[in-house]
Amino acid sequence: MDTSAPRTGVEAYLIGILERSERVSNYARSRGWRFVMTWAHRIAGGILVLYVLFHTCTLSALHEPAVFASKMELFHTFIFRFLGWVLAVPVIFHALNGTRLILYESFRVRKDPTMIRWVFVLGAIYVLTLGFFMLTGNQEVSPCFFWLIIAIASAISSTILYKRLRHTQNGILWKLQRVSGAFLLPLVSGHMFFMHLNHRAGHDVDTILARLSAPGMKALDFVFVSLVYFHAGYGLCTIIGDYVEDIRIRSGLRVLVIFVLGAFAYTGAKIILTV
Questions:
Q1: Distances from the Cα of 123 to the Cαs of 38, 142, 167, 208, 230, in angstroms?
Q2: CA quadruple 261, 189, 63, 204: dihedral sign
Q3: What is the pLDDT of residue 1?
Q4: Residue 2 — φ and ψ, nearest 5°?
Q5: What is the number of alpha carbons within 13 Å of residue 100 lying toward its C-beta?
Q6: Contact (Cβ atoms closer than 8 angstroms) between residue 130 and residue 122
Q7: If you count Cβ atoms within 10 Å of the first and of the last residue's Cβ in the chain, which end, N or C, has fewer?
Q8: From CA 198, how far away is CA 240, in angstroms rounded?
Q9: Phi/psi of residue 21, each to 5°?
Q10: Residue-averaged pLDDT of the chain
């Protein structure tokens, strides 16, 4: 965030909090707020990787509905509902800031102060709206209609970016990382939103099994799981490449990441295809 630009009261308050950290303040002065945002993006991504692993482990109990239902009792408590809401912060920040980076890299949108402000504004709207629906927890939305809209939005955003990148000189995996991010932007934010529109949608075993049994949802969820784990693996391997200098350690860590995420991706895909 360009702190030399005029600030709103909220921006001044948030920047003041960040600047109380000596390290953050030094990075902001020496390297700019874009550098701070990049680090925050990676930290948020790391949090989401841990959540996806945990979520996959939880869903593995769907093969034994009684066990899954007993586990869900724990998530009915206030503290877990609150943590579920807090999780929306790294989810929407990573999604919106990833969009900002794509617009910067591929569409030459260079108005970073404005874009960073929109990340925070749209993120705050998303988190507060989600909190409202979590408190009410009684919204009835057609799963078919909701996910059809989300799938169309994901297809449009990823297709637009693919057409932008297909003739560039970047590697295939680099391109797929960006395109997968564009596809996951509506899908991940929509998934979290849908899970909390009605408490049964994300916690009642019969409701979850009914949704997963639909062929269209199986296909969408299979693509979802595949792209999430690829996106996470590529991101972690990139971070390892940036900060681990020893080539043997770097290669070993990358193999470990690929193995672990590959195993969880297989587990997630198996759950989707067999429940």
A1: 16, 25, 32, 27, 24
A2: positive
A3: 46
A4: -75, 105
A5: 24
A6: no
A7: C
A8: 39
A9: -80, 120
A10: 87
Q: Which residue has the tokens 């297989």?
A: 266
| C-alpha dihedral (85, 91, 93, 96), degrees to nearest 10 | -130
Q: Please count the CA atoms within 13 angstroms of the CA of 144 that sit on its side-chain side.
A: 4
At residue 154, the 3 state secondary structure works out as helix
How far is the C-alpha of 158 from the C-alpha of 151, rounded, in Å?
Answer: 11
Residue 218, number of CB atoms within 10 A of its CB: 16
**pTM above the 0.70 mark?**
yes
Within 13 Å of residue 102, how many CA atoms lie on the same side as its CB?
Answer: 26
- Give the side-chain half-sphere CA count within 13 A for 116: 21
State the Rg of the chain over Cα. 20
**Other C-beta atoms within 10 Å of 240: how many?**
17
Task: Tell me, rounded to whole angstroms, the distance of Cα 182 from its chain centroid.
Answer: 11
Q: Tell me which residue of 274, 103, 98, 85 sits closest to 192, measured CA to CA.
A: 85
Nearest to 119 by CA among 101, 133, 131, 144: 101
Distance of CA 98 to the CA centre of its chain: 9
Separation of alpha carbons 257 and 247, rounded Å: 15
**Nearest by Cα to 18 from 127, 116, 104:** 116
**Residue 88 phi, psi dihedral angles, 5° rounding:** -60, -25
Q: Do 188 and 232 contact (CB within 8 A), yes or no? A: no
Residues 56-70: b if buried by 16+ CB within 10 A, e if exposed: beebbbbeeeeebee
- pLDDT of residue 202 exceeding 80, the answer is no
The crossing angle, in degrees rounded to 10, of helices 172-197 and 112-136 is 30
pLDDT of residue 139: 79
